[in-house]
Amino acid sequence: MSENNLKTIASMLLGAPVGEVVHVSSGGGNSRIYMVATGDKLYALKEYPSIENDKRDRLNTERLALDLMHWHGVHSVPTYIAAESPYALMSWVDGFVIKEPKDSDIDDAAVFLGTLHHISGKTHAEDVPLASEACLSGQSIVEQIEKRTSALMPYSKENPKLMDFLSKQLLPSFQKRLKNAKTFADFSTPLPHDKRTLIAADFGFHNIMRALDGRIYFIDFEYFGWDDPVKLMCDFLLHPATPLKTEMRKNFYNYMLSIYGSDIEARFAAYYPLFGLRWALILLNEFIPERLQARMNARGMSDAEQIKTEQLAKAEMMLIMSEKF
């Protein structure tokens, strides 16, 4: 969309004229983020993607999440201002995404998650939907792995390297990990609501910013909702955007036990390797044409084959690192 059209949208949402609208980054790889400048203030204009066969209401999910947290006094997240699908206007965080986290950043992330868990105890189940792709049992993780594998299979016929990876690496690993995971007694039993928590799905340092004044802000709540805290833990520890040092991983794990209780240990041990498979498949989304196009649009990239090669290498590494915690 042209800058003039974006300025019109931003002005409408703000209720005042704006000076400049500049594309600055992708949000989650699919959304687009624009910096909106007025005379004395900056705002973030977020454009949510329209992806075929993806009916998730990312805009309203994020609006609900931000409003809920602000209502409970959490101000380390952007402030929602206004929206007109597919655009939302929010406060601007003047800073940068944390690419090399420090030990203190793990502390801050844990404090935020502890606060979110506290809010969970004050929130009615029906007031917030399940998180995107919630995994409330081992069986639900398996179903997601099977669904993602099935979605990739048609494209593997024209991508021999993808077919080789799926048939010779991922699927054999799946059978082995599934056999081990099923030794967990409650593998097929949905987690009761009192064990669930509100999570910022896709939580990781790729969505944590350090403001210029040193404060930490948490962004991107498109997939927010109720889920198993073990999924949040696994996603944070496995997310390929920001690999963590061994000591940081251990510290984060111990923090989570203190927040969610030691009864999550057995469930975590059973599910962690399965979540690794799920992440390997997520990394291969770029082999699906509409997903590839959305990613290329968001990031301004044009070399499709290079993207596929890079993602396949990441998926292979994910299998190795997720064998066990």
User: Strands across the major sheet, in which order?
Assistant: 1-2-3-5-4
Task: Give the CA-CA distance, first to last residue.
Answer: 45 Å
Q: What's the CATH class of the largest domain, please?
A: Alpha Beta
- The percent of residues in helical segments reads 40-55%
Q: How many distinct domains? A: 2
Query: If classified by CATH, what would the architecture of the largest domain be?
Result: Alpha-Beta Complex
* Shape type: globular
Radius of gyration: 20 Å
Low-pLDDT residue spans: none
Largest sheet: 5 strands, antiparallel
- In total, how many beta strands? 10
Q: What is the ordering of alpha helices and beta strands?
A: HEEEHEEEHHHEEEEHHHHH
Tell me the CATH superfamily of the largest domain.
Aminoglycoside phosphotransferase (APH), C-terminal lobe
Walk me through the structure.
The mean pLDDT is 92. The strands form three sheets. The chain has a five-stranded antiparallel β-sheet with strand order 1-2-3-5-4, sandwiched between helices. The protein contains ten helices and ten strands. A hairpin with a 2-residue loop joins strand 4 and strand 5. It is 48% helix and 14% strand. The termini are far apart.
